[in-house]
Amino acid sequence: MADINEIRAGEIAVSPPAAGDAGLEFIGRMHTPWTSRAETPRQGRDDGPICRIEVFDKWAPALKGLDAFETIFVIYWLHQSRRDLVTQSPRSNGTTLGTFALRSPVRPNPLGLSQVKLVGIEGNIVSVRGLDCLDGTPLIDIKPDRCPHSG
Ligand code: SAM
Question: What's the chain look like in SS3?
Fold first, then answer.
């Protein structure tokens, strides 16, 4: 039977986040031009400014191979969001919708998801275009837009 704790050749393991019920460890932070929600784009654009994703040193080896992708997903924690609204009435259109029908940052677990264009990787810094989060927003995960071997 396979050992689920097996470390294969070339793999690196570090101490995992503390156990907890769906506990998260922030693995980096975003460096963007925006310091207030009002000035931050609602959704990032491929022609938006270059932003830097700082991956904390411990997790930097996890970037190996990411440079093979043009498009990646970034998942982050919208840390200044309120978390109590189940329906919302966005100022822009006057209608009311359920939180799960919106991309609003206001949600019970304020995860942000952006599909961004990879500009480059230097050490533990991933430069991308297409983000829409405040400077200092905590990073949760990065993943390519497809499996590495799916062509
Ligand atoms: N692209 C992501 C998504 O769809 O999951 C986030 C979209 S959300 C509409 C983007 C907005 O969230 C920004 O315009 C800004 O008002 C707000 N925002 C950005 N960073 C935030 C943060 N760290 N905490 C709270 N709100 C934030």
Answer: CCCCCCCCCCCCCCCCCCCCCCCCCCCEEEECCCCCHHHCCCCCCCCCCEEEEEECHHHHHHHCCHHHCCEEEEEEECCCCCCCCCEECCCCCCCCEEHHHCCCCCCCCCEEEEEEEEEEEECCEEEEECCCCCCCCEEEEEEECCCCCCC
Is the CATH number 2.40.30.70 carried by domain 24-81+105-144? yes
**Closest Cα to atom 10 of ligand 1:** 42
- Cα–ligand 1 centroid distance for 117 (angstroms): 18
Write down the pTM of the prediction.
0.92
Domain parsing of the chain, residue ranges: 24-81+105-144
**pLDDT > 60? residue 47:** yes
Residue of 133, 139, 141 to test ligand 1 pocket, by largest number of atoms within 8 Å of CB: 133
Residue 150 has pLDDT above 70, yes or no: yes
